[in-house]
Design brief:
The protein is of the alpha+beta class and 608 residues long. Among the domains are: 75 residues, SH3 type barrels (Roll), CATH 2.30.30; 80 residues, Arc Repressor Mutant, subunit A (Orthogonal Bundle); 131 residues; 70 residues, Orthogonal Bundle (Helix Hairpins); 68 residues, Chitinase A, domain 3, CATH 3.10.50.30. The chain is 54% helix and 12% strand. The longest helix is centred in the last third of the chain and has 30 residues. The chain is flat, with a radius of gyration of 37 Å.
Length: 608
């Protein structure tokens, strides 16, 4: 008990229990507040009933002693939350040198379990800067998995849990295997167990683990074929380092599972790690005999980027590359090659895929990207589209040595594709022209005369931008959902809802393209201070016709309002007036009667 408090207790002014709690708020002690975080007591006034505390989120906070006792919790000096106040620089240095240790201390201070977002609130911005936090957290998770001190979940909505320090590394990993929620997480644990092969071989531990893998894999074959294959492939990798352990003769093997599978294998393997996919593909010959090549070609362009690359490597090593290239040629001619296979061809265009790399690949890329942009569901071609934009030599290589007719066809297809934003389309066309300067005239001819800059008011520009945002974020996604719903009705030939939704899709795509072009050419202006010596954008023109006068305001390209006699400078009336001076005569049709009239300009004034 603090000496100052002892006097109060001995004099009978406060009871012993209050004195004990009050001593925990003595200067130099630490406490925790729900809203303001951890704090350090910097001073108190016992007779005035006040205490001053430096909190994480508020310094020099003065609280009444009674309120402080009720609203704070005491912290030991070695508690992580107290050290954040006392030794923050040391913690920041430790976070960089040993990130796992900082997380362990955080968990110890919070009962041994926290979810990632709770850890974020404790560390982000105070111990680790916000800018560096994401990369730091990735390093911390990797370090924790290596030390096995913390159970690191695969999902952010699950808690990190501090382990019992009495367990050995193998015991910890075996516990992780048993506690893993799904087959894929169990397969990941096998990767770590490979580093402890010698310990696994003692006391029959490995045999028990193999039996569990066998049982779990058999149960998962029907509903989780891909994850079962992943687990079995991980088991086979583990067996390679277990020198004294082998599989029983009746054990489940990869080739048995492949041979007995009746469904499509491609979707099951698309998300597996590359090394696991490779092991599975190497089991195809034993599973399918002479038909293994045809079987593996059936999944080639549907197993994701990693799968495509691994299959290509396998064919190369087995001298089957000519067969793969022939398959690619056939698929290109039928426009049936997927985005991942097309991306592989582009990456390997000067190596393994050199013989099939041509303008046909470019045409196929544009087709598959355009088709994907009109389909409902997640974008499958986003990686391919990014590759097309980022590889600045790709288009030149695609069109190298091609006849002008092929260059023309590629250019026309690119210009007419609604799948690309206007700026992206211009960037790609610039690469075509750089490779084939003679294509400049073709591009100009296909896309029409080049538009001059559109002068528009800021208000009309914002309205046009709002229309574009509504189109992209609401109307087009809504139309995609309508197509999906209509497609579910079946028989697309007689499906009116489907046809109507597809027609609307074309209308929306066309409007999107128009808006992108308009916004790209638009130049905003407040239209003030116009030169009134002649009719210009931003002037008010008074006209004389017979015994009547009419007044028109010439504004930006998108500012027409006939009822208020506001006209765009691009309109018929605007074009007739622009550049004319007081006293000159102009001809145009009256807005109401459509009658052709001759007017005399009697006055020109600035609009604002």
């Amino acid at each position: 008990m603090h000496p100052d408090v002892v006097k109060l207790v001995e004099s009978g002014r406060i009871p012993q229990s209050v004195g004990d709690r009050l001593s925990q708020l003595a200067p130099g002690s630490f406490c925790l507040h729900k809203a303001w975080g951890s704090g350090k007591v910097t001073g108190w006034d016992l007779f005035g009933g006040k205490v001053t505390i430096d909190f994480e989120k508020e310094s020099d906070r003065v609280m009444g002693l009674k309120l402080a006792i009720e609203k704070t919790e005491p912290l030991e000096a070695d508690d992580f939350r107290a050290q954040k106040m006392e030794k923050i620089e040391e913690l920041r240095a430790l976070a960089q040198s040993d990130p796992a240790s900082v997380v362990v201390q955080t968990l110890e201070a919070h009962g041994g379990s926290l979810k990632p977002d709770q850890i974020d609130r404790v560390l982000c911005g105070s111990v680790v800067s916000e800018d560096d936090y994401k990369k730091w957290w990735d390093r911390a998770k990797k370090a924790m998995r290596e030390t096995h001190r913390v159970v690191v979940p695969s999902k952010r909505n699950e808690a990190l849990v501090l382990r019992d320090t009495d367990l050995s590394a193998v015991e910890t990993l075996l516990a992780d295997f048993d506690q893993a929620h799904n087959l894929r997480d169990k397969a990941k644990v096998l990767d770590d167990l490979r580093k402890h092969a010698r310990a696994l071989e003692s006391d029959g531990v490995a045999e028990g683990l193999l039996a569990k893998i066998e049982e779990i894999s058999r149960k998962g074959l029907k509903l989780h074929l891909g994850d079962s294959l992943d687990l079995l492939a991980g088991r086979d990798e583990l067996l390679e380092v277990l020198k004294e352990v082998s599989l029983p003769d009746n054990a489940l093997r990869l080739h048995d599972v492949l041979a007995s599978s009746s469904g499509s294998l491609a979707p099951e393997m698309a998300g597996l790690p590359a090394v696991r996919q490779r092991r599975i593909y190497e089991s195809f010959p034993e599973a399918f005999g002479d038909e293994w090549v045809a079987k593996i070609l059936g999944v080639f362009d549907r197993v994701g980027t990693r799968g495509v690359a691994e299959i290509a490597k396998m064919f190369s090593e087995r001298d089957e590359m000519p067969t793969l290239l022939e398959h690619i040629r056939s698929a290109l001619s039928r426009h049936s090659l997927g985005p991942d296979a097309l991306a592989w061809i582009c990456r390997e265009r000067k190596r393994a895929a050199e013989d099939v790399f041509s303008h046909e690949v470019g045409s196929a890329i544009l087709s598959v990207i355009e088709q994907d942009s009109t389909d409902e569901g997640p974008r499958r071609t986003l990686r391919l589209q990014n590759f097309l934009m980022e590889d600045r030599e790709l288009i030149a290589d695609l069109l190298s040595g091609e006849e002008m007719n092929e260059v023309r066809n590629f250019s026309r297809k690119l210009l007419q594709s609604p799948a690309f934003a206007e700026l992206d389309r211009k960037s790609l066309m610039a690469r075509v022209i750089k490779a084939h300067p003679e294509a400049q005239e073709l591009v100009t001819g296909d896309s029409g005369p080049r538009k001059e800059t559109l002068i528009v008011s800021w208000d009309s520009l914002e309205r046009r931008k709002a229309e574009y945002e509504d189109l992209v974020n609401k109307r087009i996604p809504g139309n995609i959902k309508e197509i999906a719903i209509a497609r579910s009705y079946g028989d697309l030939r007689e499906n009116f809802e489907y046809k109507a939704a597809k027609q609307m899709q074309a209308v929306l795509a066309r409007r999107k393209s128009e808006l992108e072009k308009d916004l790209d050419n638009a130049q905003g202006s407040d239209l003030t201070g116009a030169d009134a010596s002649a009719v210009n954008i931003g002037t008010v023109v008074t006209l004389q016709y017979a015994d009547t006068t009419e007044q028109y305001t010439v504004l930006g390209a998108w500012d027409s309002d006939p009822d208020k006699r506001l006209v765009s400078y691009l309109s018929e009336i605007g074009q007739a007036l622009i550049g004319q001076k007081v006293g000159e005569k102009v001809e145009f049709r009256d807005l109401e009667t459509e009658e052709e009239r001759t007017y005399e300009i009697v006055e020109i004034a600035a609009w604002k």
